[in-house]
Amino acid sequence: MHLVYADGQGNVYDHPELHGLARSGDMIVELLEEELIPLPEGATLSLLPNTRAVGMNPSTGEMLPLPEGSHAVGALLPQGFTRLCVPGYIKTDKSYKLPLFGYSAVVWKDGGFYVAADRTDDPYKWNPLNCDRDAVRSGVESLTGKYPENRLYGHLSHCALGYECLTSSNTFLSRWEGGVPVSYSCNAGCFGCISEQPDDSGFVSPQTRMNFRPRVDEIVEVMLEHLKTPESIISFGQGCEGEPSTQAKLIIEAIREVRSVTDMGYININTNAGLSDHIRGIVDAGLDLMRVSTISALDDHYNAYYKPRGYTLANVEKSLKYAASQGVYASINYLVFPGVTDREEEVEAMVEFVRRTGLKLIQMRNLNIDPESYLELIPPARGEILGMKTMLEIFREELPEVVIGSYTHVPPTGEARAKKAVARTLPQSRYI
């Protein structure tokens, strides 16, 4: 398990003597053989700026930082893989904040790169190598040409071509899960927001947030173009927008219009679910799937990261319970971080939260954050740190009916069709 490091030009090397180390929370730890898998297809290696790689002398157990200029290296994993450890490093500039990515520990072993990760889903649909960029460009030309006045397609074309966002790319490929952003505002101030950061945060947002309020007809056009197969998913709530439920009136009108035309595919919302009344209206309009972003089932940790405005974790739980009661296939987008998510108190709280809310799916998502900044923000550990692999084993044992995955799934066919049949008989929500 040889240490992997990079020089200032980004050239990557394996150290001939030192073993690679990792971090769990604020501790530098040894990597275990059972934590390592070959570097997955679609993963990329990333230099960690302003860091020094740290390795271990296997004979003495001594931890040794490499000379300045020898940077730590991390792997950025595709969806479907949950990281178990962060790379081992020390910062050369304590004030510097790493770019907002989910760095995973990587080593050189048996003639190849290995990473500390667990496969938690089938990575095929979200492997960047399975997204034909020429086909995306063709799709952009086709749909922006067909709908020249639709500002959403103009916005999404930048996401697909500039950021190579896979969800917006799917919108132009008319496959799998496609996105339809609707909101430029948010009712939370997430510490690691990827689309909007305060000027004094020290972070650089890797994406630009949408800056307009779309019309219902623009939303409907995108939805109807995408919902053409039984397995297609169209999703409100993308990385390039704020909280979609702040535009509940638009969403409700769009869902009603679309469902008056077709019952094909699935309508999903990615949301913080804090606006319980808004979520109720969206559910009643005909929502099929809901993915709720969370980082913890403990109030102090949740509040520290999300900085919710006008809602609490109790509102989130209320929204999830209502959605589940109405047959919505509900999941959480669980932002996980080694040494934090696997704390004893966090695991216990999440197991109980899932049981109370009737969730069907936990989507494991590697938190994109600067580790030091995050650890300074949240409450200290109150119990034992179990390890990410142990945490996953506990979830699978304690929640046998809950799917452990990494992205949005559709419910079993019979269950989904029955839900839609019932929804058509319900009175329209009086939310609007």
Automatic annotation (TrEMBL):
MF term (GO), any: lyase activity
UniProt cofactor(s): [4Fe-4S] cluster
Superkingdom, taxonomy of origin: Bacteria
Coiled coil ranges: none
CDD domains: Radical_SAM
Keywords: 4Fe-4S, Iron, Iron-sulfur, Lyase, Metal-binding, Pyruvate, S-adenosyl-L-methionine
Ranges where the Radical SAM core domain occurs: 172-401
SUPFAM superfamilies documented for this protein: Radical SAM enzymes
Pfam families hit by this protein: Radical_SAM (PF04055)
Protein name (record): Pyruvate-formate lyase-activating enzyme
Species: Paenibacillus forsythiae
Taxonomy of the source species: Bacteria, Bacillati, Bacillota, Bacilli, Bacillales
